[in-house]
Amino acid sequence: MTATRVRKRARPNAMLVTGLVGLTALFVLAVVAPWIWGDRADELGPSVHLGSSGEHWLGTDALGRDLFARTLVATRLTLELAALATAIASIAGTVLGTLIWVSGPRVRAVGLRVVDVMISYPAVILALTIAAILDPGPKACVIAIGVAGCPSFARLTANLAASVAGRDFVATARLLGVPSLRLMRRHILPNIAEPLLVLVSVSFAHSLMALSGLSFLGLGVQLPDYDWGQLLSTGLQSLYTNPAEAVGPAVAIVLAGLSAGFVGDGLAARAASTSGNSAAVKPGSRKASASAPVATGTDHSVPDDAVLVVSDLRVRRPDGTALVDGVTFHIGAAEIVGVVGESGSGKSLTAMAAARLLPGGLRAEAHALELRNPGAEPLALAAPGRDGAAVRRRLATEIGIVYQDPSASFNPALRLGGQLTETLRVHLGVSRREARERAVEQLEFVRIVDPEARLRAYPHELSGGMRQRAMIASALLTRPRLIIADEPTTALDVTVQAEVLALLRAANRRDGTAMLFISHDIGVVTDLCDRVLVMYAGRLVEELTAAELRDGHARHPYTKALLAATPRLEPDGEADGKLDAETGDGLLAAIPGRPPQPDERPAGCAFADRCAAVLPVCRDTPPPVRVLAPGRTVACHLPETGAPVPVQAGPKAGRHDAAVEAVG
Amino acid sequence: MAVLDEAPPWLGFAARRLGGVLLVLTALVVITFAIVQLMPGDPARVAAGANATPDQITRMRHDLGLDRSVPAQFVDYVGNLLHGDLGRSFHTQENVADIVADRLPYTAELALLGIVVILVVAIPLGMLVAVLCQNGRRRRLDGAFTFVTGFVGSTPEYVLGTLLVYVVGIKLGWLPVAGAATVDALVLPVVAISLGPVCTIARIVRRETAVVLGQDYFRTARGRRLPARRLYLRHALPNLLTSTLTLAGLLLAGLLGGTVIAESVFAWPGLGTRVVEAITQRDLPVVQGVVLVLGSLACLINLLIDVVLGLLDPRTLSGKAAGS
Ligand code: SF4
């Protein structure tokens, strides 16, 4: 839900470039080295086991041959063998994978299972086996390493083919009766070339190291031929006399492996970034947002019994862009306040700021952001720095949070009981037994049957609705002063939504818990809440009571558009024609256009581009925030929005009455 | 819907895993049997030695049962295996079972210590870096970590081993560089085989931790304002271990391969040095026996990882895919 913008960065991929440069250099070396240094590498010299010197950079070996030249010359054989092994692995593996994929579902399942088992078998041991069968030597090793690399290619090919095969054009081709093999060759292989290429480079690195390893063991390249592994093994033996002897081949092996690995990583990173998955926060570009000229009245209407006080709250990204821009409101004791708006309006960030639980990197600033408690000091929620134990305890016990997606908000690896009772046990030192008893009590309150058994269950063993009710029970366990519910019904289907709303209302009535309820659904908000805040592009555009909203007294063009776009929730709770519950996209369909991005908000009214009533002044002057009555504000240039409000519509008028009966 | 009262999920899990193990063991037996069948040339000639007369070779062929049909030989082979008979070395006439019993403890010691070191070092290291660098903080530390682990992680164990022998063993003279006579002789081989995997797995842990820290359930845990230790150990560790072990399982099983190679660097008297010797001598029964044992070990490590995964994540037991 963060409004952090996803940006593709067209940065040259340093890793890929480095890797390619390294590999190219090695291949050039492989071609030219034997011509240039070939003679020198085989030339027997008078001085054996010479240390490093100006003439022989890496010294000489047991026969007086120059080791630097030998290392360079060995490049060709080493790379040749590695390339051969990679070729065997990729060709045989791709063919195997293709065969597995085209051979029907039953064989495919078994084939993939076998491939998995093969992958989990150490390649070196397989290579030793094959080397034993074939008589040690470079041929045996290349075949061995090639065969050992096959399963990875087979699995990748089969998996990718399966994923590509699900796409439309392949389905169409199949409908037209294109045979499987041809489908593979013409339509699928071209589409999976990139991941295969990544694997080829990784596999080349692995082959090179494994082959050098086998030569190092004396099973690969045999004298008088030599590759890096063979040179290294001789180097190891003369480590006491001439340590420089091992340096050349060791460095060469590492560099070659690194280069090939870089190419693989770089290709993979590029593939990942072109598929647009980097949620990178744009660096630099300190674009100070134009602050609202009118600070909404400071404490003009905050009652003494307020539980949450928010004054001029701003939530900023690291680059300074304000995602929430000057929001002021309060929640009275036992009051349910709803915040409604499209996604990206800043409503969830407002809630998370109030919960002191902003995603990393975002920071909250406010004139005041505090949780009030008659028996204690106000708890500052926007204070910078770390919280001490006492503050943490108050945060954990005085604020209960109900999150949006119940299936993702419980830890899948832990039993429900431990998660529900954790706050009690950690912060209040309640004994295990008592904590469980209290958890059972709350689970009964949210109408979960057989609560003892549920406490022993894992989250995945419960249905989505049950998980959200358990989440509510968890939030209620410490008898908090405030419950913050961030789109608690969005991920649920309609019937379950009604249950969850009824539970929240029941909790509010039983404990007098104040509530901050976030939703994109103005119908639900009207129904549940006492007062409603409408947010657009990080700011409050209207504040009014639910009764006024119900009676059609909304004044801001955006609120009106929201209402017009929303089918009303019927009084009996049967929500017919709810919005697309997942995203609230129904709203966007009904109000043309999209809200501006946080760093592109205009100087004037952010709604101007979509507003039917837009005036010339709207474009460059921010609309004034007009306080019509306590708890009744509107931010718009239209003159009629500033007209005096009828007296009876106070902040608490019409509280509950209709709302309670609606779903109760 | 809730599925609470069905057959215990671990039953199906155990059945599936046992099936996998049997499959691998069967394949191993077939492959090791095939070593003798597939080798080009005449195993009997190899067994009898270079200077054997045709007569001796014929006798050897008969002794080894190579003159019988392939299925009959296979039945014999399996029967002998079940009796713990792995045959005799062509060269020393020793019992292969004795050779294995003699060498296995050294290799197992090295590999198990390696696994312990890898897990004990890589997991805290990766978590620490991930926690310190979350939300793009401490970019320099992150860069250094990525660079160093990338570099060391792609350095093969025989290169690392050679380097260690030179620096620690020869230059500094702190530790013995060969043999297994003393306890401190273990240090360098264990470091050599575990350093690379430590780096690679620490990178995996770093990435997986970052994923977990961004999960909704981790935010729920943060919302409970738990002390840092409880937050990371209880709410992040089990989840990141699941994904990490799934990815790292291959590396841990592959560690056996690294051990085989590293043994040669340090003249470690384990199965690795013995099998290399046997391969160069074409001592097929020894190769067969060692490959069988190493393969079973790899299979055992995989099984252990699966069991740990099952314990960590209840969802893997029921065969459901993790994640939402
Ligand atoms: S200020 Fe102007 S553009 Fe904005 S909502 Fe009011 S009328 Fe529309």
Quick rundown:
The complex is a heterodimer of chains A (664) and B (324). Chain A has 664 residues and is an alpha/beta fold.
Task: Describe what you observe in this structure.
The complex is a heterodimer of chains A (664) and B (324). Chain A has 23 helices and 13 strands. By secondary structure, chain A is of the alpha/beta class. In chain A, the strands form 2 sheets. An 8-stranded mixed beta sheet of chain A has the order 7-8-9-3-10-11-13-12, with helices on both faces. In chain A, strands 1, 2, 4, 5 and 6 form a 5-stranded antiparallel beta sheet that branches. The longest helix of chain A is centred in the N-terminal third of the chain and has 36 residues, at 67-102. Chain A has helices at 14-42, 67-102, 104-119, 123-134, 138-165, 168-175, 180-188, 193-216, 228-237, 244-274, 347-354, 389-398, 406-409, 416-428, 432-445, 451-456, 464-476, 494-511, 522-528, 546-550, 557-565, 585-590, 657-663; strands spanning 308-316, 322-331, 336-340, 363-365, 368-373, 376-380, 399-402, 482-486, 514-519, 531-536, 539-545, 625-629, 632-635. Chain A has 2 domains: 14-252, MetI-like (MetI-like fold, Orthogonal Bundle); 295-402 and 481-663, P-loop containing nucleotide triphosphate hydrolases (Rossmann fold, 3-Layer(aba) Sandwich). In chain A, helix 1 packs across helix 2 (67-102) and helix 2 (67-102) packs across helix 8. The two termini of chain A are 30 Å apart. Helices cover 49% and strands 11% of the residues of chain A. Chain B has helices at 9-38, 43-48, 54-63, 70-82, 96-132, 139-153, 157-171, 187-213, 216-223, 228-235, 237-265, 271-281, 284-312, 314-317. Mean pLDDT of chain B is 82; it is low at 1-5 and 319-324. Chain B folds into 2 domains: 13-82, no CATH class; 97-282, MetI-like (MetI-like fold). Chain B is mainly alpha-helical. Chain B is globular and about 85 Å long. In chain B, helix 11 packs antiparallel against helix 13 (284-312). Chain B is built from 14 helices and no strands. Chain B starts with 8 loop residues before the first helix and ends in a 7-residue tail after the last helix. The interface between A and B is large, with 79 and 83 residues. Bound molecules: iron/sulfur cluster. Iron/sulfur cluster (SF4) binds at residues 557-558, 605, 607-608, 611, 613-615, 618, 623, 636-638 of chain A.
